[in-house]
Specification:
Elements: H1 2-28, E1 31-35, E2 39-43, E3 49-54, E4 57-69, H2 71-81, E5 95-103, E6 108-117, E7 123-128, E8 134-136, H3 144-155, H4 159-164, E9 169-176, E10 182-195, E11 198-208, E12 214-225, E13 230-240, E14 244-247, E15 257-258, H5 264-278, H6 280-283
Antiparallel strand pairs: 1-2, 2-4, 3-4, 4-5, 5-6, 6-7, 6-8, 9-10, 10-11, 11-12, 12-13, 13-14, 13-15
Length: about 290
Amino acid sequence: MKYTKMLVLFLVILLSVGSVRAAAAEKAEWYWISSDTKYSKFFAPARVRVVTNINNVPTRIEAWTKTNYSYAGAKETIDNYGITAAIPDPSTLSYSLGRVEINPQNRTIEYAQEIFYDANDKPIWSKDYTKRTVKEINSQSFDEDFYNNIVDQVFSQGEVDRKSAADRWLLLWQASSVDGASTNCFADTTTMRQHDDNTILWTWEETKNAAGAVTEIKFTKKTYNLLQGTEKVISYSYWNAANGWSDLSSELDGHYYSIVPDTNDDIGAGILRGYIENHKVWVNRYAIK
């Protein structure tokens, strides 16, 4: 009888240890990335896989992401998705999983599948995207942290470190006016990459008045052909205090223009040449030879 009781106790302990290990293994699958008042972001390193490659360079990467929601984050997400009918109460949305595909050469991410869950792990909304939205990653992207961690999992080129680096924003030029206003234009080095003779990047041009308040912002995606001394604006968003953000990309003509000598753009092009010369590995990362 005593032996039987000891055997039962041993089995209970063994099962308990197994359950703890199983739970730990389940939690360990998700690697925490970042958190704020609305969202906590995770990804599953073990589920990152290369789908396609060219000349042994990965060109399409699949991964799973996880997002935990506060009430404010859940409400914002439900409103943005237009799924209030499916999830009328934001407090029921606990977390979501997303299957994403990434193209590192173009810095894009697209969602192939999303599943929203309540606190009891019950799916409350899901969608498989047959028609996908391709999102380019820049400083304003919700998915920037997901992209950086997933790409680093494959290439280990330092996307995560570059995002938080003190020299992430490269000053291209600065100017001031007689009324005390000043303008600074920065290149986001996380977005900088070389495609043949073209250098593609996003810039942030910010103007402040004499009191130091921001009065306008120009956020642009540009491509430079520094060999020919030309540039083209690919995407353009504008902000001012009165009207907020406006996407003005539809007004662009898609043409390359010669960079005028001795202008701010010319000064900026010179700064870019120096950066590219000193950071050849970075700007050519993931390039297909």
